[in-house]
Amino acid sequence: MQHQAPVQTRLSDLLAEHKLGFSVAIAQSNPAMPASFSQHQVHWEASLLCREQVVTTFTASFDLELFGAAPPQDVDLLGFLAADLTELQANPTPEAWLARMKTAPEDPAASRWLWCYEQISLVGDEISAVLGPEVLSAIVSAIDDTVTTRDLSPSMA
């Protein structure tokens, strides 16, 4: 990623500014992943914390070859979360989400992709409700600085 260092810096600054962190525990699986793909991943149940209080919890999977089996760093988890929230912002309806995933509604994989859409929407809603839409916007803009709060879908702001 060409802008990785500035993105990592923005993510680190965001963690410090808003007193954010993560609590992680190994997860047996990630319902979003097919079993055949999942074997090359390590799954983590991650809770986003603000001042030691849980804001939201989600499952994150990281490639074993790239990240190893050690728990991910907070900045990596926030980047993972920001990427999903940015993808959701760009595809704010279930139909747009499926189109982005190149999946027809009748495809058997559609239910898995729609579950992902719902889970990411829920995480965005929880962040917005607990921390405020400005923090949600800051998380998204950490990797996409063209986003403003007014750009977020209603379920994310």
Structural topology:
Elements lengths: L3 H14 L2 E8 L7 H4 L2 E10 L2 E11 H4 L6 H17 L3 H7 L9 H22 L1 H9 L16
Antiparallel strand pairs: 1-2, 2-3
Helix pairs in contact: 1-4, 6-7
Can you tell me about this structure?
By secondary structure, the protein is of the alpha+beta class. It has 7 helices and 3 strands; from the N terminus they run αβαββααααα. It has helices spanning 4-17, 35-38, 64-67, 74-90, 94-100, 110-131, 133-141, and strands at residues 20-27, 41-50, 53-63. It has a 3-stranded antiparallel beta sheet. It is globular and about 45 Å long.
Output the keywords.
globular, alpha+beta, 157 residues, disordered C terminus, three-stranded antiparallel sheet, 49% helix
**Sequence stretches where pLDDT stays below 50 over 5 or more residues:** 146-157
- SS elements, strand count: 3
Structural class based on helices, strands and sheet pairing: alpha+beta
- Shape from CA axes? globular
The overall pLDDT average reads 87
Strand order of the largest sheet: 1-2-3
How much of the sequence lies in strands comes to 15-25%
**Could you describe the largest sheet, including whether it forms a barrel?**
3 strands, antiparallel
Element-level helix/strand string: HEHEEHHHHH
What is the radius of gyration computed over CA atoms, rounded to a whole number of angstroms? Answer: 15 Å
If helices are DSSP runs of H or I spanning 4 or more residues, what is the number of helices? Answer: 7
* Amount of helix: 40-55%
Summarize, please.
This protein is of the alpha+beta class. It is built from seven helices and three strands.
